[in-house]
Amino acid sequence: MQLKDSLTNLTPLSDEQQRQLSQALSTLNTQQLAWVSGYLYGLSQAGSQPAVTGAAATAPSGNLTILYGSQTGNAKGVASAIKAQAEARGLPVTLTSMADYKPKQLKKETHLLVVVSTYGEGEPPESAVDLFEQLKKGKVGKLEGLKFAVLGLGDSSYEFFCQTGKDFDSLLTKAGADRVHELASLDVDYQDAAKAWGEQALNAIAATLSAGPAGSSVASAVQQAIGHSQYSKENPFPARLSVNQKITGRDSTKDIRHIEISLEESGIRYQPGDALGIWFDNDPALVNEVLALAGLSGDEATARGSLREVLSRELELTRLHGGFITGLADISGNAALKDLAGDKAQVNALVASAQVVDVLKHFPTVLTAEQLLGLLRPLTPRLYSIASSQSEVEEEVHLTVGVVRYPQEDGTV
Q1: Can you count the helices (H) and strands (E) in the chain?
Q2: CB-based burial of residue 240 (10 Å sphere; 0-12 exposed, 13-18 middle, 19+ buried)?
Q3: Which residues lie below 8 Å from residue 229, measured CB to CB, with a gap of 6+?
Q4: By three-state DSSP, how is residue 246 classified?
Q5: Does 252 score more than 90 pLDDT?
Q6: For residue 239, what are the contacts with CB-CB under 8 A and spacing of at least 6?
Q7: Which of 27, 38, 135, 356 could pair with 171 in a Cys bridge, judged by C-beta atoms 3.0 to 4.6 Å apart?
Q8: Contact at 8 Å (CB) between 381 and 394?
Q9: Coil/strand/helix, residue 95
């Protein structure tokens, strides 16, 4: 008899609890199922939790909703991590994309955390536009009694750094909501700060939110037992590339690839529409070129290893940012570069069309290892839309990727 079938027999669980339990258990192998079985049996036999009566047995006085507005997946990742932190505390929590959220629902919320990125020149990401506009126009109405906190993600090389987060914080306050934790405006290297902010914000939320009795949901107990996948942006899974197949014709000017990656034994689950983040090492030839242009050997010692190793694995060499241009201008003393750095429109145009190596070629500057490291941003994973359904390909993920090559002025690609 299948596990799903057995759950439909005589059981004290509701239909929704059966559904949640089946979903949670469907990802486990035989060894994991045995462990969870023993864990739940131990909970039922321990008798260490006193009976819950009176006020403590009532439903939670409120619920925490985490809304995220994400353009590249970073805000979604931060929001998901905060949800996991909330669940570990036993707080009743719901995670929702702003794209799937009805703005008028805000009047029914009691506790809210907003995690939102800023897109372009201070604009909300596409998924957040509707909610943002409804708040801005006052169509949501007054939100007295709502406890909230906002975390904004952005890039300080842009003029309107984390503007959308600042706007959400201001609009919620204007609507009468009560801010329970300070606004966070986090730069591209946000991971540690986001985790700390999440802990502090949840402390403030927990102080005003009475959670229901622990262990009140079978599905909740199972989720706590099996946890989330151990792999994340900070701890990526070393996957195996199994297929890299060109799917365009021999005479086509486009190079489109079908990519298959094995997720075997990772426990990673994904849904249609999710993005896959892939970490990479910088091209050794590019690393050598940057080192040569900066007048460095690559053997210079740093706190994280040799300079060559750090450039290869930890720092962005392809995505240019405004801070690199303005910082190099200060170091080099080059008059033309200083003029360019003082014109924000020119800086933004160069950021959109060039890479680090292009700037170093046009404005040769001898740098120390410390100066070069100070100019560069941390490496970030590249996000690709998933082109497969896990119900069909199981422990694989498929991508369809277009290869783009840009010729440089010296003829190299």
Answers
A1: 16, 13
A2: exposed
A3: 266, 267, 268, 269
A4: strand
A5: no
A6: 261, 262, 263, 266
A7: 135
A8: no
A9: strand
Tell me whether residue 161 is exposed, middle or buried, using C-beta atoms within 10 angstroms of its C-beta: 0 to 12, 13 to 18, 19 or more.
Answer: middle
pLDDT digits (tens, 9 = 90+) for 364-376: 999 999 999 999 9
Query: What residues have CB less than 8 Å from 212, skipping those under 6 apart?
Result: 58, 59, 60, 92
Residues in Cβ contact with 23 at an 8 Å cutoff, skipping those fewer than 6 apart: 219
The three-point CA angle 103-105-109 to 5° equals 125
Chain segment 8-48, per-residue pLDDT in tens:
444 566 666 666 777 666 666 555 565 566 556 555 544 44
How many CB atoms are closer than 10 A to CB 178? 14
Bridge partners of 241, per DSSP, are 261
Q: Strand 147-153 and strand 111-117: pairing?
A: parallel
pLDDT recorded at residue 382: 87
Computed on alpha carbons and rounded to an integer, the radius of gyration of the chain in Å comes to 25
Read off the pTM.
0.56
Query: In whole angstroms, what is the distance from residue 203 CA to residue 238 CA?
Result: 34
The 3-state DSSP class for residue 380 equals: coil
With b for 16 or more beta-carbon neighbours within 10 A and e for fewer, the 96-119 pattern comes to ebbeebebeebeebbbbbbbbbbb
Q: Is 54 exposed, middle or buried (0-12, 13-18, 19+ CB in 10 A)?
A: exposed
